[in-house]
């Protein structure tokens, strides 16, 4: 092998080694947080409103800036008020051509930091390719860190933006005294007793039978 060819080959090997080290360190950064993720400042998932499985791709969301290869950074935490979709979406939904969904369940608050796998939806399969991510449930929001991301358009993660949640915000609970006072103010309808019927009997001797 000629010296110049050897030099080029060594440069490629060195570049691959450096790239591998940088990718490895970036992947581990999802789990190397020195502060509490739930108390830290975390950016929102970009373009969240267009990521619901009921939102079809449009000329707007088909723009390259909506692709997660450009919209999201690897090994960086993002938060969302709504969880990532955990069921296979249809093609051309979630505002993209090839949606990505979580193959598993979103964590509960007591689960802490967990590893998850996501799936790429295409024409023939619900899971043509998989991507790794980390997730944590902070109670008021979900947080996700993407270990690896799509390498090209048009692929993006789905979130259940439009899924309704139970209303647990009770701002007023009436006390027992308030309930009794409310009931006491309700007027009861007056009930008219029927008149007693009177029967007149002829004056007869009770010991005489038959009366006559």
How much of the sequence lies in strands comes to 15-25%
Q: Please state the overall shape, judged from the principal axes of the Cα atoms.
A: globular
How far from one another are the termini? Answer: 151 Å
Topology as a string of helices (H) and strands (E): HHEEEEEEH
Task: Catalogue the unreliable spans.
Answer: 4-27, 165-194, 196-202
Q: Supply Rg.
A: 36 Å
Number of strands: 6
Total helical elements: 3
Q: Any overview of this molecule?
A:
The protein is an alpha+beta fold. It has a domain at 27-157. It is 18% helix and 15% strand. The chain contains 3 helices and 6 strands. The chain has helices at 3-28, 68-71, 176-184, and strands at residues 77-80, 98-102, 114-120, 130-137, 142-146, 155-157. It has a 6-stranded mixed sheet with strand order 1-5-4-3-2-6, with no helix packed on it. β4 (130-137) and β5 form a beta hairpin. It is globular, with a radius of gyration of 36 Å. Residues 4-27, 165-194 and 196-202 have low confidence and may be disordered.
Structure, briefly:
The protein is an alpha+beta fold and 212 residues long. The protein has a domain at 27-157. It is built from 3 helices and 6 strands, in the order H-H-E-E-E-E-E-E-H.
Topology readout:
Blueprint: H1 3-28, H2 68-71, E1 77-80, E2 98-102, E3 114-120, E4 130-137, E5 142-146, E6 155-157, H3 176-184
Parallel strand pairs: 2-6
Antiparallel strand pairs: 1-5, 2-3, 3-4, 4-5
List keywords for this structure.
alpha+beta, six-stranded mixed beta sheet, 15% strand
């Amino acid at each position: 092998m000629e010296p110049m060819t050897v030099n080029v080959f060594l440069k490629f090997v060195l570049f691959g080694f450096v790239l591998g080290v940088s990718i490895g360190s970036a992947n581990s950064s999802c789990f190397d947080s020195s502060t509490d993720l739930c108390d830290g400042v975390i950016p929102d998932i970009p373009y969240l409103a267009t990521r619901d499985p009921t939102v079809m791709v449009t000329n707007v969301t088909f723009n390259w800036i909506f692709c997660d290869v450009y919209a999201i950074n690897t090994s960086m935490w993002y938060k969302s008020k709504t969880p990532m979709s955990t069921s296979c979406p249809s093609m051309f939904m979630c505002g993209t051509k090839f949606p990505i969904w979580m193959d598993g369940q979103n964590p509960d608050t007591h689960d802490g930091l967990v590893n998850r796998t996501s799936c790429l939806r295409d024409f023939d399969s619900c899971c043509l390719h998989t991507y790794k991510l980390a997730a944590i449930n902070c109670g008021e929001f979900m947080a996700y860190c993407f270990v690896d991301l799509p390498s090209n358009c048009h692929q993006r993660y789905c979130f259940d933006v439009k899924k309704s949640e139970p209303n647990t915000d009770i701002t007023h609970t009436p006390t027992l005294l308030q309930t009794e006072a409310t009931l006491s103010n309700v007027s009861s309808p007056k009930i008219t007793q029927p008149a007693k019927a009177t029967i007149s009997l002829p004056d007869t001797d009770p010991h005489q039978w038959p009366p006559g």
